[in-house]
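Q: Could you predict the 3D structure of Probable membrane transporter protein?
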Amino acid sequence: MLPDYSVIAWLLIVFSVYLTGVSKGGFAGGFGTLSVPLMALAISPTQAAGLLLPLLLVMDVFAVKAWWGKQSNAEVWRFVPGLFIGVAVGTVLFGSLSEQGVRLALGILSVVFAAYMLLKPIAKKPISSRWALPAASVCGFTSFIAHAGAPPMNMYLMPRKLTKETFIATCTITYAVVNTIKLGPYVWLGEVNMTSAWASLLLVPVAWIGVRNGLWLQSRVNEKLFYRLVILAMFAVGINLVWQAL
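A: Sure. Here are the predicted structure tokens for Probable membrane transporter protein:
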């Protein structure tokens, strides 16, 4: 049985799923963080997160197939331990967290980082790989709470000076890993259930169209503009998260 959502809610959900697909297909998840906040305008954030996770996994299959082989395996492996840590913390603290507090902190961090990158986009040298563990831990945690893993991941990967294709591919594989890790806890906590699963299944074609359109768009955007768009997306996401929290 499908959830009894209003027409407005379904329109927001469809648009959010499409936006996430475009983001996953060609923009390293930079715009996908807007999905849960947008859906949360009409349904609860918990329902939004539970409905979206199976779709994220479907999108991951499409996106990984398109980008496999172009990722930095070293960067992906650096992230894996932290992703487990972040998801574990989110699972343990589930129900006792202030979702608004997490959104506010993440939003402020995103805005500050995006402003810094816009004002000073070129660093003298890449940041140390030692930052991978804390960045991945925050990524796993915020991804678990609201599928908002892009800001902390971008904060680490963007200063690593990867090429556009390597950056997108590395983000794509890492998102697939963290979403897979999240599935068990989401089912155990009841965030993914039969009702949400039916809604997710209905939206699979929207997810597929979004990913395909994202792949088409990214190939027509040069590297400098691409990174500018990712930074601007982080800024927009940050403002949105702060607004949602307040």
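Q: Anything worth pointing out?
A: The chain has one domain: 7-244.
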